[in-house]
Amino acid sequence: MSDRYYAFIPQTTVNSKELNSIPATARWIYVVMVAERHGLDAPFEIPYTEIRRITGFSKPTISQAITELETIGFLEYEHGGLECNPNVYDLDAGWLML
């Protein structure tokens, strides 16, 4: 079995003013999250440590980028709580008028 996964990001998303209005760090984290869900349209978990390993961004940078993505409506998430569980994310394309 291959470890390769392909992430599909529609051209309308790539060219959107919403995605292009946020910092490159947030756009890159969005791409990482799209790839992490492995094409499934379902909530998923990804720890900050994994995002950091992939991107090299600091924890505050990751946190700020996730807040930016949530603010514009690209994702919703449920905080992992005080037990240090990973957050559960759900990517949302409801912001995009089709």
List strands and helices in order, with pairings.
Elements: H1 11-14, H2 17-20, H3 24-36, E1 44-45, H4 48-55, H5 59-72, E2 75-78, E3 88-91
Antiparallel strand pairs: 1-3, 2-3
Helix pairs in contact: 3-5
Structural summary, described in words:
This protein has a single domain (11-91), classed as Winged helix-like DNA-binding domain superfamily/Winged helix DNA-binding domain (Arc Repressor Mutant, subunit A, Orthogonal Bundle). The N and C termini lie far apart (36 Å). It is 44% helix and 10% strand. The protein has a 3-stranded antiparallel beta sheet with strand order 1-3-2. It has 98 residues and is mainly alpha-helical. The protein contains 5 helices and 3 strands. The chain has helices spanning 11-14, 17-20, 24-36, 48-55, 59-72; strands spanning 44-45, 75-78, 88-91.
